[in-house]
Specification:
The chain is mainly beta. Helices cover 0% and strands 55% of the residues. Strands 2, 4, 5, 6, 9, 10 and 11 form a seven-stranded mixed beta sheet that branches. The chain has a four-stranded antiparallel beta sheet with strand order 1-3-8-7, with no helix packed on it. 30% of the residues are buried.
């Protein structure tokens, strides 16, 4: 059973930084792309970033240059380094993976950015 567990959320002031972590289990981690999504209150869940098994990185336009996704295969972990945070980044952040055509999500971690 694939399980994804996020950590590292919290409350910061605008301009601050946070680092989110996601631990994955139940899948051959190195073979799969891992991603981060977020959902703000009253809004649909949106893509934030993804890192492929070949370490290619892709970002949503509004976070490009501020967020960095990385992975550590030896520890089955993926990270999201978030700098220059803005109030509009406030959301629940989810780690995600698609394995054999099925989407898996973590429970989410809250990020709140105050102005």
């Amino acid at each position: 059973q694939v399980q994804l567990v996020e950590s590292g959320g919290g409350m910061v002031q605008a301009g601050g930084s946070l680092r989110l972590s996601c631990t994955a289990s139940g899948l051959p981690f190195a073979n799969y792309a891992l991603g981060w999504w977020r959902q703000a209150p009253g809004k649909v869940r949106e893509f934030v970033a993804v890192i492929t098994n070949m370490y290619n990185e892709f970002y949503e336009d509004s976070v490009e240059g501020r967020f960095t996704i990385s992975r550590e295969n030896a520890k089955n972990m993926v990270y999201l380094e978030m700098n220059g945070l803005k109030p509009e980044d406030t959301a629940v952040y989810y780690c995600a993976a698609t394995v054999l055509g099925r989407d898996y999500w973590g429970q989410g971690t809250q990020v709140t950015v105050s102005s």
